[in-house]
Every structure is written in structure tokens, then in C-alpha cells.
Design a protein that fits this description.
The protein is an alpha/beta fold and 298 residues long. The protein has 2 domains: 27-113, Leucine Dehydrogenase, chain A, domain 1 (Rossmann fold, 3-Layer(aba) Sandwich), CATH 3.40.50.10860; 139-272, Rossmann fold (3-Layer(aba) Sandwich), CATH 3.40.50.720. The chain has helices at 6-26, 43-59, 74-86, 105-110, 123-130, 139-150, 170-178, 198-202, 254-257, 271-296; strands spanning 2-3, 33-39, 62-68, 92-95, 159-163, 187-191, 207-210, 228-231, 235-238, 246-249, 263-264. It has a 6-stranded parallel beta sheet. It has a 3-stranded parallel beta sheet with strand order 3-2-4, sandwiched between helices. It has a two-stranded antiparallel ribbon with strand order 9-10.
Length: 298
């Protein structure tokens, strides 16, 4: 069994980005700039945005956090998004989810300029991804692809099962694994809560991507010998003996499944660290795209 070390791979990618940014700035160019809009005081959201801010500092990006009151109106939030769309020195930005109940998330995300949508959630970017056109890929699926690539895991012709059909992970992952590329060219089955005989399906899988938010859901009896296991779940499980009062568990029963897997991601330290890093990759791509457009307009 080989551990797919997202923490180590993320550090390597950050070093690569750092060197590229250093070369850009030494040639007299400005630094790439990532902004984050956060609404309210959701602790998990604040932690996530803070990690993005730290990651920007590590690779030499400018970073801006715009914290807004939970009571902000949908109209005022959209005005803030339009301001960021028009701000030329910001290459990309994200609207941290979830948003308060009185705000329509989809309506808000549609207002983001697709050229600055480094989360890859805008329908224009999603549609381009589905058509194998250049686009910003959603950060978590992008991170999974990078792990598979860096560990030289062959996916062509492999039977791949995705558990979960969210717009953020499951659905884009199923599209990306079936595209004509490497990683890709897999035979993909997208499963969800209404799937019948799930165990029979997963037992035939060469690669399983679990993204449902249910701790320990995928057990050893659901996995065949030698399967590759990607665990996207990050679930807080109460544990009074732990310092923080909880422990992080994935969607995979790691201790039993690792005995059968050929490759497996841990939780924490697997897919999680890759997500923020791929957001940086998307921001660097947005920066390059903007520079190219400016050059073409001369």
C-alpha cells in the first residue's frame, strides 16, 4: 500500500509556483493577486479562508480578504462582486460558501466574471470543462487529478466509481475521469444515495473516489484487492479524548481499507492540502490569461 501524500505533493507544487512567481517579479511584473469574499462568522469558512491567505503568502501572491456582515443583502453582495470583477489588479477571487440562508448562492456565483472564477464554479467554466476546453477546474477535483498524475497512477480503461454527485466534487470528478486525457479515459460510474447494490458496484472498481460526507462509509468489504482509494471526506467526529474535542475522519474506513488498497489518501493530509494549492494554480493561470489579453490588445 502506498500513501498518497497530499501534504508532501502540495508542498512540492507550492515550491514550483513560488519559483515561477519569483521569476515573474524579477522581470518587473506584479505579483498574482487572489481575493476572498467571506460573509458572516462561520468558523469553518474563516479557517479555510485563513489557510488560503497563508498559502498566498507562502508562494508570493498578494492576498485580500473581504469580510462582510452576515446581514448583508444579496444586492449589496452582488455589488461587491461587481467591484472585484472590475478591479484590474485582482486576478481571481472566490466567494466562500456557504452563504447565509437569505442569499441565493447560485445567483451570486453567476455574477462572478468567469475569467476570475478561480473556484471553477461558474457555468461557463463548468461547461468548458465538460467539453474538454481550457477552463478553471474546481479545486478539489483538480487536486485529485494532480495526485493521480504525480503518483503515476494509470486510469486509462480503468473502472472508476465516484460516490457522491455534488457540483463541487462528485459530478465534475466523473466528467474529468472520463475525458480524453491523462488522468482520464476511465470508465466511470457515478453513484449516490439512490444507487442500488452499491457494494456490488464498488467491489468491481479499480479506482474509488468517495465524496459524500459520511465518516467511515466505505468499508473493506466494499473494496477489491489492489484498488486505488481517494477519500475526499473531512468529517468532524466527536472525541472527548482529543484536544479539540473532535477528530477528523474521512468517508473511508482507513484502517481496514488500507490493507486492501494499492494506493490510498489519508485524512487529514490527503486531498485537503491539494485543494488550496490548486486554487493557487488557478489564480496563476488567471494572471497569465490577463497578461496575455493585455498584450494582445496592444
Amino acid at each position: 500500500m502506498t500513501l498518497l501524500d497530499g501534504k508532501k505533493t502540495s508542498a512540492t507544487l507550492k515550491e514550483e509556483i513560488t519559483q515561477e512567481v519569483l521569476q515573474l517579479t524579477q522581470n518587473g511584473n506584479r505579483k498574482p493577486h487572489l481575493a476572498a469574499l467571506i460573509v458572516g462568522d462561520n468558523p469553518a469558512s474563516k479557517t479555510y479562508v485563513a489557510s488560503k491567505d497563508r498559502a498566498c503568502g507562502q508562494v508570493g501572491f498578494h492576498s485580500t480578504i473581504i469580510a462582510l456582515e452576515e446581514s448583508i443583502s444579496e444586492q449589496d453582495l452582488i455589488r461587491e462582486i461587481h467591484r472585484l470583477n472590475d478591479q484590474k489588479d485582482i486576478d481571481g477571487f472566490i466567494v466562500q460558501l456557504p452563504l447565509p440562508p437569505h442569499i441565493d448562492e447560485q445567483k451570486v456565483l453567476l455574477e462572478i466574471d468567469p475569467d476570475k472564477d478561480v473556484d471553477g464554479f461558474h457555468p461557463m467554466n463548468f461547461g468548458k470543462m465538460a467539453l474538454d476546453l481550457p477552463s478553471f477546474l474546481p479545486a478539489t477535483p483538480y487536486g485529485i487529478l494532480e495526485l493521480l498524475k504525480r503518483y503515476n497512477i494509470q486510469t486509462e480503461g480503468k473502472n472508476t466509481v465516484v460516490i457522491g454527485r455534488s457540483h463541487i466534487v462528485g459530478r465534475p470528478m466523473s466528467i474529468l475521469m472520463s475525458r480524453k486525457s491523462n488522468p482520464g479515459n476511465a470508465t466511470v460510474t457515478l453513484t449516490h444515495r439512490h444507487t442500488k447494490n452499491l457494494k456490488e458496484i464498488t467491489q468491481k472498481a479499480d479506482l474509488i473516489i468517495a465524496a459524500i460526507g459520511s465518516p467511515g462509509f466505505l468499508t473493506a468489504d466494499m473494496v477489491k484487492e489492489g484498488a486505488v482509494i481517494i477519500d475526499v471526506g473531512i468529517n468532524r467526529v466527536i472525541d472527548k479524548s482529543a484536544k479539540r474535542g473532535y477528530v477528523l475522519k474521512g468517508d473511508v474506513d482507513f484502517e481496514t481499507v488500507k490493507e486492501k488498497a494499492s494506493f490510498i489518501t489519508p485524512v487529514p493530509g490527503g486531498v485537503g492540502p491539494m485543494t488550496v494549492t490548486m486554487l493557487l494554480k488557478n489564480t496563476l493561470l488567471a494572471y497569465k490569461n490577463h497578461r496575455q489579453k493585455a498584450a494582445d490588445s496592444l
